[in-house]
Amino acid sequence: MTHDESLKPGSSLADGRFIVDKLIAKGGFSYIYEGRIIYRLALDNEFVTIKAEEKPVVIKELYISEKSRRESDGITLRWNDENEPDEKNRLSYRIKNKTRNEALKLRLLTSPYILKLIGAFEENNTIYQITEKIEGAVDFHKRQGLSAEKIGTKLSVFDAIRYITQISEALKEVHGKNIVHLDIKPENILCDYKDNAILIDFGISMTIGEKTGRSTVLSAASRPWAPPEQYNTKDTVAISFASDIYSLGQTFYAFLTGVIPPDFSEVTSGSAILQSPSEYNKDVTDYLDEVVIKCIQSKRDKRYQTIEEFLFALQGEDDYKVLIDKAQKAEQNEEYEQAIHLLNESEKYIPLSSDLLELRYEYQNKLKQQQNERENKQKEEEALKLIHDGDFENALSILELLPFNAHIRQQMEKCRQGISLRKKTELIAEAENLIGKKQYENALSKYQEAKVIDQSDVAIDRSIEELQKILQDIEKNKKYNEFIAIGDKAFEDNEFEKALEAYKLAKDNVTLSSLTIDKRIETCVIALSERDEREKAKDAVANALAKVKDKPLLEIAEQELATEIEHNIGKLKLIEDFRVKYALSDAFHTEFLTSQARVKELEQLRLYFEAKTENDKRAYDVALKVLADVTSPTLKESVISLQKEIKNAQEIAKVEALEKEIKELIKKNDFHVAKNKLIEIEKVDKLLSASLQTTLDHKKLIYATSLNDEGDCKGAISLLQTIGAQSPSYNEAQKILDAINKKKVADNETTIIEQAKVAINKKNYQAATTLLNAIPNSSTSYGQVTQLFSTIDKELFDNAKSLFERQDWQNASNAFNKIDKKSAYYTEAQRYIRTLKQSIETQHYQKIISDALQKVEEKKYKKARQLLAQIPAQNSVDEEKRELLQKIANAENGKRNKIGLGVIIFIVVIVILLVIGLLSKREIQPTQPASVERIQTEIEKLKADSIASENARIEEEKNRAETAKKAVQEAQFRQEKEDKATREQGRQEKEDKATREQERQTAKNKRRALAIVEEGNKLFSRGEYDAACEKYIQANRLSYGTSNVGASKFDELVQKLSFDKEAPGYKNNMARANKIRNAK
Asked: Biased composition, Basic and acidic residues: where in the chain (predicted)?
């Protein structure tokens, strides 16, 4: 029965730094305990009881039950071979030495797949190793339930390759340090909580070329995991890196099959058959069978010779991993189709795990989503092209089928506006065409339809008013013509009263000059007078005939008609009849000539009226030509008046022609020529010129909008700038100009953001930062800028963190230093930088320790001391440095002791020889034995002095070490105190910086607020109160109190309306003032 001599729970080691909690395992060479490491602070050369931190650890105590025992104190060990005079022949010496070397080797290893050694020290006549404790860890022997009696749990091919690859990565570093593990097996591989494989137990590891007793290695060899050469006690050079390859292959076999592989001796003797892994696991490929079988060849030269060669061979199977990596990279680049193809290819090597099957399903969904997005993008581009081509209806029908977002909503609104604008433009064009055809009612209907589309178009309002006026004039002209026709018909029928009444009604509806109707009325009045005269003449003739029935007709005519000729022109016909039938008397002839003169005057009057008729027909040139033949003095004033009227009508016609030409030019968008024509009209008719100018400006507005939609911003801007401030279209033009300028700024910022994204994708963060810094904080796109800055900072931080995790500390430090102070990751980066600084120093010092250890092994103690002198005091490798210096001192002292003892022995031998020589010359005296005894006494005395001197020197070195330890503790305390002061100073500087930044931001906000107040004042002066109120509110939110001027303005309006507190204006202005004051 084995007696339990393990340490009791609560036992402390290394001056209380480590506490034993419980025994968890016992091996042939050690006790394994679960314990804690306690970090404490040093103060005034004494340890205080303040516990800074406790961390669970595993404590390994060197203990061989057959070779050692525990003293009565329950702590100190005594070894059975301590009485052996030659220390080097003691087993305990060799085991301790090997354990020390194991600790030194482990300190040099930094792989994440190797159990981390925290420290090692000698105490209680034995050696303790402290390693990290991995929570929840279990070795693969237990995890798989490996047993010789039954088949355990086999791992998936994917997991088996992953674990073996991790152990291989660990062995790359181990072999790189010229170390062979010699004990790789499932029991010595842990699986941590992250599902990573961790290699442990370097108890029987060797350094290539190290002279170690074969019996030690043989006694610790584990069947069936150890290679044949590990059992060959004759061949001291047989151990090599290929030995670990064999053990790794046996472990790989167990991972894949769940079966403990047969021992090489069983296979060689034929008592067991080595089955291929695929016999147990159908997922194992033929190629993987070949890789495993080659690893476990009995002959060392038939195996892979290096771990790199094994990994390279595994890459044939790792084509699977390469494909998986490529698939994941393709997924990162959103190349989902390629990622799915690569996963399908990888399935040819190894069946996909459930995670990868789920990943492929996810890629398929993302591919479908990507295809939908691409299809939607194509449809969106098609819609944008249709919008550019002006096909708004089809573009809108496409956009309505796309997923709804802000951009799609904007484009749909643009389509609706385009449809409305085009419809309005078409209606206006149709109306102008109808106006050209004199179809004013239809034109008015088109303008009214256009007005429904755009209620704010002032030009349409003006056109509607003009058309309504034209239609009213047309109605009046229609009535005028009807009354003229009635009057003319009545005049022809000699119904002069009816004609006169019709002419008067026509005059009430006349729209142009009333001279023609006035003449008609005058003619009608004259006709009425003449009719009365004719009636009187008729009566007079009847009376005359009655009086002179017997008189000749000519005589009667001469007497009667001569007196009436000037008053009754109708009688001329009668006179003509007389002239044909009878010879006229001289008196009658004279009257006849007078009548002929009257006829000429009547002809002149006829020509005058003919000219007026041509004028009414707008044949102005013909009218002027006819008037040129009117020479009657009595009609001179009337002719001059009619000539002026015709010339005025000619000017009006010219203006109308120019107006029509200008409208045609406007329709053709020939604005420059139209402007020149307007100058000509302005000289004649300023009112018409202003109306046409409004139409021109409106057309410019429409055309500029079209140019802007087509992307010709420059042309649109130049056209809009020609619209004057007095134009009704000016405000709308300014709005479009502002929109174009904002769009140009937004497009420029969008371009910058896209370039920055490209730079980020190319990992060119410096260029991306330079681009993004060009966008001001006030920009509407600054939210995207902030997000991109965050992306850059995150990628820089993740890249630096990745370098940190790969232990590429120098590059990681440079990467962390690139993170801007404004970044959210800056504080964390600084923490990493401080850690990296310590890690780089520790790595450098560990390299020096390694080189110094190499020099010690080569017995070059002076060079080792020179290397160690490069390591300053108060650092993380002080303990290793002290141990190595102690080892060097011990080696040098041993060397000096050997030389001193040799010199002493040499002197004693010389003395003895001299004494013997003297005695041989003399006769032998009885006192000879006494002389020999004296010599032996002297020799013993010299030995005692030497031992005492050595003990004194050891004591002195021990005192020096204790003094140095206290000095280190004091320095650590001072350093911690300085670090605390530095942290406090940094915190204060950070607070000061935050205060300054807040003050700077406050001043900046106040400046912006004052500028916004000025904008509000301008809006207020124009009567745009709601817009002004929003500006004042915005200013108050930036800097409270800056827009009290706005509140006071609305308070004044409230006072003006105080007589009627129910008025909407009173309530609205009161609400505005309160909203401004409450905005904070």
From this structure: 953-1002
Q: Residue 660 in contact with residue 652, Cβ under 8 Å?
A: no
Six-digit token string for 737:
């100009």
Q: What is the DSSP letter of 114?
A: B
CB 1050 within 8 A of CB 1017: no
How many whole angstroms separate alpha carbon 566 and alpha carbon 563?
7
Task: Show the 3-state SS of 304-361.
Answer: CCCHHHHHHHHHHHHHHHHHHHHHHHHHHCCCHHHHHHHHHHHCCCCCCCHHHHHHHH
Radius of gyration of the chain (CA): 60
Query: Looking at 133-276, which runs of residues are DSSP E strands?
Result: 138-139, 179-180, 189-191, 197-199, 206-207
Q: How far is CA 685 from CA 161, 469, 653, 654, 690, in A?
A: 97, 17, 12, 11, 9
Q: What is the mean pLDDT of residues 200-218?
A: 69
Q: What is the pLDDT of residues 914-973, one digit of tens each?
A: 777 776 655 444 444 444 566 566 666 666 666 776 677 677 767 776 776 676 677 667
The rounded distance, in Å, linking the Cα atoms of 853 and 596 is 156
Q: Token digits for 933?
A: 């005894």
At 707, which helix (H) or strand (E)? helix 686-709
Q: Is the confidence at residue 268, as pLDDT, over 90?
A: no
Choose between 346 and 44: higher pLDDT: 346
CB atoms within 10 A of CB 548: 14
The token duo for 521 is: 């009325």
Q: What is the pLDDT of residues 572-585, one digit of tens each?
A: 444 555 455 444 45
Cα 927–chain centre separation: 108
507, exposed or middle or buried, with CB in 10 Å at 0-12, 13-18, 19+? Answer: middle
Q: CA neighbours within 13 Å on the CB side: how many for 811?
A: 12
Torsion angles phi and psi, residue 118, rounded to 5: -85, -40
Residue 44 — very low, low, confident or very high, per pLDDT cuts 50/70/90? very low
**Among the listed residues 879, 871, 966, the one whose alpha carbon sits nearest the alpha carbon of residue 974:** 966
pLDDT digits (tens, 9 = 90+) for 452-497: 887 888 888 888 888 888 888 778 778 878 888 888 888 777 787 8
Look at residue 19 and tell me whether its pLDDT is greater than 90: yes
* Tokens 């030269």 -> residue: 301
Burial 1005-1040 (b: 16+ CB within 10 A, else e): bbebbeebbeebbebbeeeebeebbbbbbbbbebbe
Residues 618 and 445: their CA atoms lie apart, in Å, by 29
State the helix-helix crossing angle for 765-773 and 730-761, rounded to 10 degrees: 160
How far apart are alpha carbons 158 and 469 in whole angstroms?
91
- Cβ proximity of 967 and 45 under 8 Å: no
What lies within 8 Å, CB to CB, of 683 at 6+ separation is none
How far are the Cα atoms of 12, 13, 227, 343, 937 from residue 43, in angstroms, in the given order? 21, 20, 54, 61, 52
pLDDT at 1040: 63
In the block, which residue shows the tokens 């029987």? 204
Output the DSSP codes for 581-602. HSPPPHHHHHHHHHHHHHHHHH
> Global pTM?
0.36
The pLDDT of residue 422: 80
Q: How far apart are CA 442 and CA 433, in angstroms?
A: 10
Q: Above 60 in pLDDT, residue 690?
A: yes
Assigned token pair, 716: 């649109």
- At which residue do the structure tokens 């300054």 appear? 996
34 pLDDT more than 80: yes
Total count of residues recorded for the chain:
1080
The closest of 645, 644, 641, 638 to 616, measured between CA atoms, is 645
User: What residues does 85 pair with on adjacent strands?
Assistant: none
Would you say residue 561 has pLDDT above 90?
Answer: no
Residue in this structure with the two tokens 């099957």, named with its chain if needed: 357
Residue 1072's Cβ-count burial label (10 Å; 0-12, 13-18, 19+) is buried
CA distance 499 to 229: 147
* Angle, CA 502 vertex, CA 501 and CA 505 arms, to 5°: 90
